[in-house]
Amino acid sequence: MLSTDLADLKTYMADNPGAVIEDVARERKVSSRAVIEALPPSMVRIGAGEHFAAAMQDVAEWGEVTLIVHTDDAIFEFTGSIPAGEIGRGYFNLMQPKGLHGHLRHERCAGVAFIERPFMGKSSAFVAFVNADGGIMFKVFVGRDETRALRGDQLARFRQLADRIAA
Fold first, then answer.
1. Organism's domain of life (predicted)?
2. How far is CA 31 from the centre of its chain?
């Protein structure tokens, strides 16, 4: 990316920190990682992808969260507890027979981004697992309480995990 394009993207994200990352990436023909990295530094920290399993194991202890997979064709949302997982046969396997389960290609994770920013008039906090191509594998959002505020216990866990992984 040219330095002028990068500067323009950083200015855009500073002015529009709640913009949908995937939409900005598509419109500007850059990776989602480039958009994440263009957020103001106070809003994002990124750790290495090698921390994928540790991050997922921690998130599995947070309780009800929202996991989002955003593709060009759909936005899938799952609200509930993320199951614990383990690595086997080349995948990080989510270990529960019903609800959210599956097999994640953890070795393609190139970054674990911790993002706190305004979104649609509210504070938001999420972990974005970024793949080797600069795309977002999926995001895990800190849950909300009955008043729609971020859950304080989860926000504390989110920040502690960011401190460990993206110090």
1. Bacteria
2. 14
